[in-house]
Each structure stands twice: as C-alpha cells, then as structure tokens.
Amino acid sequence: MKIIVDAMGGDHAPGEVVLGAVNAAKELGINIVLVGNEEKIKLYLDEQDPRIEIVNAQEVIGNDEPPVMAVRTKKNASIPKGLRLLKEGYGKAMVSAGSTGALMAGGLFTLGRFEGIERPAIATMFPTRKKPALLLDIGANSECKPKNLAQFAVMGSIYYREIMGVESPKVGLLNIGVEEEKGNSLVKTAYGMLKELKNINFCGNVEPRDFFDGNFDVVVCDGFTGNIFLKTVEGLGFFLLDQLKDEIKRNITYALGALLIKPVFNAVKAKMDYSEYGGAMFLGLDGILVKCHGSSDQKAIFNGIKVAKKFVENDILFELKEAIKEIEGEIKC
Amino acid sequence: MKIIVDAMGGDHAPGEVVLGAVNAAKELGINIVLVGNEEKIKLYLDEQDPRIEIVNAQEVIGNDEPPVMAVRTKKNASIPKGLRLLKEGYGKAMVSAGSTGALMAGGLFTLGRFEGIERPAIATMFPTRKKPALLLDIGANSECKPKNLAQFAVMGSIYYREIMGVESPKVGLLNIGVEEEKGNSLVKTAYGMLKELKNINFCGNVEPRDFFDGNFDVVVCDGFTGNIFLKTVEGLGFFLLDQLKDEIKRNITYALGALLIKPVFNAVKAKMDYSEYGGAMFLGLDGILVKCHGSSDQKAIFNGIKVAKKFVENDILFELKEAIKEIEGEIKC
C-alpha cells in the first residue's frame, strides 16, 4: 500500500513529517510518497529507503493564505500536487498537517464529493472520561441543513466502528439541553431525522458539559458549533495551564510541589493530546484524506498515517458510500 | 434601597442564600426582602434584623420543571412572587440562584421587555488572562437575528462600562475566524451591523481560543453558541480537574507534590469561579434581575446582590433603555 504524505504541511515540516513518515513505512510496512521540496526532504532521510519516494513540489500553501485562491493559483504546491496524485490512484490515501482550508478546498476541487453527499465534514476524536469520542463537523461547514447532520451521523458511525472497533456506536446531537425540544431550529429538525435513521444508534442530545463523560461515541453538529467547541477546548486548556504555571512561580514550595507532580501534568497533557488519535478525517470526499494538527510532531504524523492505512484496509470509503446511498430514501429534506 | 432575594433558589438554599443576604444587608447598607418559606428562612436568621424582611412563599420551582408551565401554575412560588414584588416597585432589583428558565419566562411574563427590545439576553463574566470579559447571550435565545446581536453589543457595553469602570469597552463578535467574511450568515450580517454602530467600540471577530487572552471586554453571540461555549468551559474544566486528581492518586510522591501546590489549585479555581463577578444578568427585561449560579454559596449571593445594587445606583436600566432607543434608527433589520 502506498500513502501520500504532504511533507511541507505543519509547523514542524518537513523534519517531523519526514521522520514520522519514515517510521510509518518501517513499522506499518507500507510505501510512502513524500510530496514537497526534494532538497529539504532529503536532509531528513538517512539512506536510500526503497519504501520512500519523493515527488518534488517547490511551492507551499501557508495557513494564512485564502484557501480557494491558494489551491487555484499554486497548482504545484504540495497539497494540490498530492491531491492530484491521490485522484490518479498513485496512492491510496493522503496525509497532511497543512492548511485545513486548502485541504478542504483542494479536496472538493480535485477529489470531489461522493454520490449523495452535499457537504463533506471534518471529524476528529476528543478524549473523554471513557473512550475517545468523535465530533463532526468541526469546521468544514459554517452553515448546515438537518440532512447534512444526518449524513454526518451515518458517516461518523461507520468511521468510529471501523477505527475503534465498537459495533454500534452511540450517536449524540450536540445541543444546549437534553430534551428533544431544546435548541435552535437546525438541531430540532435534525433530532427528528436522526431518531428515524435505522442504521445508526441515536441516543439523543448531548450537552457540551456531558460530552466529556464519554457516554456518546459519535457527536454531530454543524461546523460553526463544532469549531466553537474545538476552539473553546483549546483556548481553555492553554488558559488553565498558564494560570497554573503563573501561580506555581509564586514561591519555592509550589515549585517543588510542581516538580514532584510533573509526570501528572504530562500524563494529563498526553491524554488531552488528540494527535494520539490520528488527526482529523474529511468524510464525504471521494478519497481518503487525513489532516493532522498543524503542530504535529513525528508521532502525530505516524498516527495519521496509521489511521489512513486502516481506512484503506477496512475499505471504509466504500462503506461510507454504500451507507449514504442506503439512507437517501430515509432522509426527507 | 430594598433588594428582593429569592431565598429558595439554588442548591444551597435557603441557608447560604439567607446568610449571603444578611451579610449584604449589613455590609452594603441595604434592605433585603427574602421571598420563600418563612419557617425555613428563620432557621438561618439570628435575631430580629430591621433590614431583613420575609415575604412568605410556600412553593418552589425546581430546575427540572418546564419553566413556562411552572411560572404559570406555581404563581406563589418564590420566583413569580418575587418578580411581582419587583414589578410593583416593592424592591429595586431581584436576585435569584433558581431556575434560569423560570427566571427568564417569569421575567418576560411579569416584567416584560423594555421598548425596542425583541430578545432579552443573559450576560455573564468569564475570567481571562487580563480583565474579566462579558459574554452574551449565554442561553436565553436559541435563535437570533443580527439585530439582536447588535442590541446585545450595545447593552453589554453599557453594563461593562458601569460595572467594570471601563470607558469604552472593546466589543467582539464570537466567531470561528477573525476575518470579516468568516462564519455563518448570522455573524456575517451582524458583523456589518456592529461596525456601523456609533456608540460601541467594535473591534472585530474573536475566536473562542483567543477569548481567554482578554483583549475583548464584551463578546456577543446567539444564545445557542453562547450556551455551547459556557457548557464546554464547565465541562472541560471539571474533566481536566478530574484527570489531574486521578493521576495524583497513582502514587505517594504525586500526593505529596499535590499537597504542596494545593494553594495553587485553589487560586486557579478561585480565579475561574465566576460567582466572583456577581452571576448573570438579564439584559433587556424591564427590571433588574440577577441570576446567581445554582451552586452559589453565601459569597456568590453576596456578590450578586452587590452587582444588583450597583445596577440600581448607576441607573443602568435607564441607560440601557436610552441606548436602545438611540440605535433604533441605525439598525436596519
């Protein structure tokens, strides 16, 4: 199996990306196509590894560039080039820690949506008190229709089942109350749609404060709400950590105490680290595209490649397509 | 000045509520009307205090009761009774740690909105790296129009100025990106409206992860988004704390370290404690109604009463009404 890796995406590219890809090739027994600046990539490659191939791409799309414009004008940047290779079947999946917007725009442009999908979603795992929970959409669609949420629920269920090995994942709808009549018109209509779907295990509304209890496996929402949730988690996490650090600096006893429980902080940080779960997945695109966090280190890239491999092996894309076809009749717009 | 206090609202009522009210009467030099079960209230009153008066209300509205139904059927519960006293002018403001829904429903029913207001909002302070920031609406309106957000911005600015003493509070729009074109149709239209408003200091979009930097004083959003934000903060806060506790239990060194830095945790918890800032305020109702957190202790009740007093003294309600009248011509629906 050959997996395409965008060597230039992310804060620590190409170094950490190349190292993660090399490990993946070795440990997962796959071939890697590194797309990016050949000279720079070679700095991180020890020897001639037959499992690693480089496709040169001189340009890079930055996180701050308007995505649609960037993928149209920089056709030879690593993201568009990688996506074209994927489309042509040169690799089975693609992994990138680059601009989410460019990946989405390029993905739509080059791979397209598969049949029946109006809106692809971005899905990612969050830690909870129990198993990790998958949230989607975390930001691909600022505006959603109830039907989109129903499709997200179906795709999320398949993804979770295949990746986490849970037969019938519990699906929840992110809302501001647990009662059926709670929320805005989008979630109220979506609730009615979700409870009618036969091929998912819909368990009702979930409030963000209960999300972390881990009683739901797959939680759906529109991309605006999901992105608010994601960025609140990130923002509050860093804020709390900084507050603790500031307080610890106040005296020597605290500093000593902090030293003693340093492994505790590290353990919690590791648990909160969603790179552990292989990054985010674009569901609904006609291709397998994994997005790793921009701050990904080699371990995160490795995990992203691992998820991509599982996606290919379990033929999840095929299953997604079949499931979306199946529910087409069930969903009334 | 006489302030009405719902003695029966909150998890620690009536004990903590009565104690907080007694302190407020003493320290703030005001009179208090305690509304609730007279017998139970008297258990917490030491002596005959001329500044404390009890108005008997046998019934209580629980947090789990459907709010609209509850305020209609339990007319003599502490919330509806207190609101009627407020409406009749028996007190200048009301403070309650009871059901938010019942307070909103009862507030709309008994006090009504003031002129020009379509949707009252609930506003509350959050800690940040700098000064606390006011977020509204945190849950009164699941569905909002751009005009509502403009009114929230104006009301929030006045509230922040008067309570925090900041001449020209920086107003932000909660969004999933900083660029003007980001977000759903609601925030995109609201952005255009906010930047035209002359009597606020609009500074653009703010992402939840930057919210905690404290570069904005007043942040507006629809009640669905605000409630998602609020509950994510609560949920993640407790989750992180539990994770730390679990890890600390793993060995004796950690336990010792944790003991040494206990004051650090307490300091951070105190900073995160929004009861510090006097609870949440219903803005847009034709009366001064402060909602304290359900888990309020006497200090939180005291702070709620203190904010209510400031609201009365600074004649903030009058200012809100004038400002809403003023912008009426500026806002195009």
Automatic annotation (TrEMBL), chains A, B:
Pfam families: FA_synthesis (PF02504)
Subcellular location: Cytoplasm
Keywords of the record: Acyltransferase, Cytoplasm, Lipid biosynthesis, Lipid metabolism, Phospholipid biosynthesis, Phospholipid metabolism, Transferase
Major subcellular site: cytoplasm
Lipid biosynthesis is among the record's keywords: yes
Record's catalysed reaction(s): a fatty acyl-[ACP] + phosphate = an acyl phosphate + holo-[ACP]
Pathway: Lipid metabolism; phospholipid metabolism
Alphabetized NCBIfam families for the sequence: plsX
Name listed for the protein in its UniProt record: Phosphate acyltransferase
Natural source organism: Fervidicola ferrireducens
